[in-house]
Amino acid sequence: MPYTVGLLVFNGLVVLAVYALQRLQGGLPLNPQDLAAVSPDYAFNTLVS
Q1: How far is CA 19 from CA 1, 3, 16, 34, in A?
Q2: Deepest in the core among 17, 21, 30, 33, taking most CB within 10 A?
Q3: In 3-state terms, the chain is what percent helix, strand and coil (to 5)?
């Protein structure tokens, strides 16, 4: 049971972190190509695939 809870919590945090990185990409430093942020539906689709 603790392993399952830990796995779900960790995966949830990773999903939130990657989604935030993709959505905030346009404003993050070290973006030499000045890429825009990923759209919400595309960011979600990337995460679940």
Answers
A1: 27, 24, 5, 18
A2: 21
A3: 70, 0, 30
